[in-house]
Amino acid sequence: MSAGVLEEAIKKAAIAWISVGDGPAYALWCMPAEASLVVVSGPGEQFAPGLAEADRATVRLRGDHGGLIVQTDATVTRLTPGTDEWTEIAPQLAGKRLNAAGSADEVAARWAADGCALVRLTPAADTAVGAAGLPAESQAAPTRDTPARVETRRPFRLHRVRKPR
What we know:
Strand order of the largest sheet: 2-1-5-6-7-4-3
Oligomer: single chain
Number of helices: 3
Largest sheet: 7 strands, antiparallel
């Protein structure tokens, strides 16, 4: 696979499917930064179990048509609040955060205070698999059990509804 496809997929990425180890892949919003992706997770942000503590993760990126075009292993680096890298990247990522309460600097300060993890995912180009090497069958996982799932009630009807003849 050419490095150009990987670079272009990273530049256009807004969402990436990221998995750590043998765990399930989670759809996480991200921001391209140079030749890598930056993701925030933690209290009040998106759920990415194990990503902040991981050394490596698997990243799947979609193309313009919405289908999977690249899968690669990536090195995970956690950014530390107060460093030059944090000061440069956190406000940029906070500016792209939808429905954030406050300015980009306030959101970045909240991330630092709440202990949110800001991680950089740097793809290993030699592990990238392009469209030709990806499986043809769907990689959709069965739905996971969640307490948020509720049984749907029948709609309330005040009067009897007559069936058409």
